[in-house]
Amino acid sequence: MIGRVAGRIVYKADDHVLIDVRGVGYVVFCSDRVLAGLGVPGEATALFTDLLVREDILQLFGFPTLVEKEWHRLLMSVQGVGAKASLAILGALGPDGVSRAIALGDWNAIKAAKGIGPKTAQRVVNELKDKAPTVMAMGAGPVQAPAGDAIPEDDGVIEAPARTAPAPAPAPATGGAAQSEALSALQNLGYAPGEAASAVAQAAGDAPEADTAGLIRAALKLLAPA
Fold this sequence. Notes:
DNA-binding; four-way junction DNA binding; DNA_helicase_Holl-junc_RuvA_I; Helicase, Ruva Protein, domain 3; four-way junction helicase activity; five-stranded mixed β-barrel; alpha+beta; CATH 2.40.50.140
């Protein structure tokens, strides 16, 4: 299993990118959204990958976060959702959008993806709704690309650049990390995973830039309205 690819971009096509890893080129299929976020040929990049094995073909699919990779794996488990459909859903909504749509049971949001009909969208929500809290709790950030001069030619070691000054204090978590932390906090308060995930998803949809504390406050208002 190839779980991660890190190297230099050789070229980008409509549905895939070719990444050179020390002389070996990997063709990695990605959604439109992921491809748009990658650099230009010659730049370093890194993606988490999922390997699809068929009788006549091996295909790698690439994702910037573990959350997106996990949603791809789960979407592929739904009858009628292949790799192309999964990438269409993730490309249209992004991993946070998929988390929100499934946690809230919003199959219309899933249906907005190209090539996804209402029956398939409803099946996705019905089959994966119980999985949303677990995936949302992962809160994984993007895989880090190696620095421009840190891709080795002769060994597999990537050394981190030396720091000459203390790192600045981290900013408050937002996006997927904030949703993960808020979900964990609500579950610690005794809320069931499903209702906590639904409240966090709705709060995140109303305020996409909210930090953890903001999401917790908003979700609690939804769970226990005055």
